[in-house]
Design goal:
Two copies of one chain form a homodimer. Chain A has seven helices and nine strands, in the order αβααβαβαββββαββα. With 189 residues, chain A is an alpha/beta fold. The first copy, chain A, has two domains: 61 residues, Winged helix-like DNA-binding domain superfamily/Winged helix DNA-binding domain (Arc Repressor Mutant, subunit A); 114 residues, NAD(P)-binding Rossmann-like Domain (Rossmann fold, 3-Layer(aba) Sandwich). Chain A has a seven-stranded mixed sheet with strand order 5-6-4-3-7-8-9, sandwiched between helices. The first copy, chain A, has a two-stranded antiparallel sheet with strand order 1-2. Chain A is elongated. The structure holds nicotinamide-adenine-dinucleotide (2 copies). One nicotinamide-adenine-dinucleotide sits at the interface of chains A and B. The structure holds a DNA duplex (30 and 30 nucleotides).
DNA sequence: CTGTGCTTGTGAATGTGAACACAAGCACTG
DNA sequence: CAGTGCTTGTGTTCACATTCACAAGCACAG
């Protein structure tokens, strides 16, 4: 969240930012931000604020986003297609290098410059340096595909299906349930 | 989250569920679940668990998801198209009744059964009983469109653009930044 | 109708994160 | 070089959420 906000400031050629500025932008309190940054090691300048470039570098290092991270996309349906063509992953240094699907109609076709391969040709992801996967298959297939991904050496899964998937401890899953997020709104409205 | 998990059990014709069962499924501790449900008012049966149908009804009531909620979609791009055709909103009682875009190439075309209208014909959402909007426009346009939505009487916005938008206090915003969620993974991997 | 086995509901203890308040420090001015 | 204005870093306080532990209660069996 900080990385996104501060990258935005970088684009505007801002050199320094104060905790108060960030707090206003992110709708947080300024001590919160100073405490967080202090855990990274102190590098703010009293009276001036934090050096934007330094801050971005530090956060990227901590999040291990300094080097390009390869990712595989599973499921070339409506959502999968949108994700495959989404340029926003680039900002965090992600690159979708493989797309897999199970549908014979889709295998062999291309999305952008990437050819859709059969899920049966998943192979060894670890060997290819692909540690992340984006899962955009129907809920019913999510667990089965996750199992295959784990077997192939994937270490992190971004799950777009509205269901829990079970994986070994060494694998990290992050689930986004878009409908659920929308479901939060009526309560407050 | 509870609603999703328990709806799943309902589909499997499960009649009762214990806090322990749910805890295992959601990777939580069972007292957490009992505490949460106790805030809703006690209605579990000792020795048996919670009645699935009653629980779902209660949670839907609290979240104001008992009646159908109309929603407008803004932005008929790649993501917008996927969202417009996504059946998963139905589970929470949502229905996308209007689609708006600014591109002359898209206005007038249909996605599913819904015609894409011009953003200039937004009109009065409140009058039409539309209180929610899904925002799937480029980041640069997000704030401007949000302002127009607020003006038209929208009360809740699901923002898919990777940026903060500022709205009056009476309006609630929920932002999903898909790339950011993926950005969390490398740290743990 | 009594005993056994679960499961709930909740007071108390624990853990954790946010907010406050302020000393310390840098920059810039005259 | 002293004075002024901002901003950081952090010890302390506070608030809240999670977890524990256990009495109370229901179902079902014999
Ligand atoms: N469409 C949306 O806007 C949206 C929004 C939120 C969540 N989702 C979720 O994302 C997932 C995909 O949604 P969608 O709308 O793209 O669905 P879709 O039906 O358009 O696409 C699913 C794709 O997955 C492929 N697939 C099915 N089983 C597979 C398997 N075992 N291995 C590999 N590929 C397989 C299908 O061939 C298809 O191409 C679903 O779980 C859905 O709930 C979608
Ligand atoms: N594509 C994805 O998978 C993906 C993933 C995560 C987030 N997002 C975000 O979702 C948003 C949309 O992404 P996309 O890939 O669909 O982009 P897109 O360029 O394909 O579509 C954007 C649509 O918005 C319309 N638009 C532009 N300005 C508008 C305005 N002022 N009023 C109404 N409509 C307007 C455009 O005509 C276009 O149809 C972006 O903010 C993007 O960052 C997309």
């Amino acid at each position: 969240m900080y990385l996104r906000a501060i990258s935005f400031l970088q684009q505007q050629a801002r050199e320094y930012v104060s905790s108060q500025d960030l707090a206003d932008q992110l709708h947080l309190k300024s001590p919160q931000i100073r405490k967080d940054f202090s855990y990274f090691g102190a590098f703010g300048v009293k009276g001036t604020g934090y050096h934007v470039d330094t801050l971005i570098g530090r956060i990227r290092d901590i999040l291990k986003l300094s080097s390009i991270q390869k990712a595989a996309l599973i499921g070339a349906g409506r959502l999968g297609k949108a994700l495959a063509l989404y340029p926003g992953f680039g900002m965090y240094g992600f690159e979708i290098v493989e797309i897999f699907d199970s549908s014979p109609q889709k295998i062999g076709k291309k999305i952008g410059n990437t050819k859709i391969k059969s899920i049966n040709d998943l192979g060894d992801m670890e060997e290819q340096g692909i540690r992340l996967a984006i899962l955009a298959v129907p809920s019913e297939a999510a667990q089965e595909v996750a199992d295959r991904l784990v077997e192939s050496g994937i270490r992190g899964i971004l799950n777009m299906a509205p269901c829990y998937i079970t994986v070994p401890k060494r694998v990290r899953v992050q689930t986004i349930d878009i409908a659920m997020e929308l479901g939060i709104l009526p309560y407050y409205v």
